Amino acid sequence: MAFAVNFSPSPLRSPEITICSNNFPKSIISFTRKRPMLSFATTEEPPTTTPEIELEFIGPKPDGDGKYPVDKASAVSGEKLLRTIMADNKLELYGTYGKVMNCGGGGSCGTCIVEVVEGKDLLNERTNTELKYLKKKPEAWRLACQTIVGNKENSGKVVVQRLPQWKK
Ligand code: FES
């Protein structure tokens, strides 16, 4: 008769003791002693929430009722550029020229202009590219491909005017 003790890698399982007998070559008798269950008291942590930025995009032209259309979107704080969020939500960013001649977000055409109506503090500072292209433009104007929405920690609401150059 032979004994084998198998220590399981799982800390919650008891070792298995297997008894093999020469009298019963094909049979293996195995039993496991049950161990009392252990429980640990844990302090409950509040669920972690990912900071999010809510966005509203005001259309460049009023609808038939005279009101400007507003599209809504949301984004995880600090993860995406404004241009990407607009593309993800199929919101038109470019004017006639920009539709054909934009640089694809490379910061070399200056056509992805938006106006930040609300929530400027939830965005990154103007980049050098913006300082170059928007030198003589209103301070609230941004290039969507240079604008990071959120900083991974903040949350709140950003309101964006699309195609502000069309508004007179
Ligand atoms: S897409 Fe060309 S500068 Fe933003």
List the helices and strands and how they pair.
Elements: E1 2-6, E2 16-20, E3 28-32, E4 52-58, E5 70-76, E6 80-81, H1 82-88, H2 96-101, E7 113-118, H3 128-133, E8 141-143, E9 148-149, E10 156-162
The structure holds FE2/S2 (inorganic) cluster.
FE2/S2 (inorganic) cluster binds at residues 102-103, 105-112, 143, 145.
Features:
single chain, 168 residues, mainly beta, 3-stranded antiparallel sheet, 11% helix, 29% strand, binds FE2/S2 (inorganic) cluster, 2 iron, 2 sulfur cluster binding, Beta-grasp_dom_sf, 2Fe-2S
Written account of the structure:
By secondary structure, the protein is mainly beta. It folds into 2 domains: 2-32, no CATH class; 52-166, Roll (Ubiquitin-like (UB roll)), CATH 3.10.20. It contains 3 helices and 10 strands. Strands 5-4-10-7-8 form a 5-stranded mixed β-sheet, with no helix packed on it. Strands 1-2-3 form a 3-stranded antiparallel β-sheet, with no helix packed on it. Strand 2 and strand 3 form a beta hairpin. The longest helix is centred in the middle third of the chain and has 7 residues, at 82-88. The N and C termini lie far apart (97 Å). Mean pLDDT is 83; it is low at 1-32. The structure holds FE2/S2 (inorganic) cluster. FE2/S2 (inorganic) cluster (FES) is lined by residues 102-103, 105-112, 143, 145. Belongs to the adrenodoxin/putidaredoxin family. One of its GO terms (biological process) is P450-containing electron transport chain.
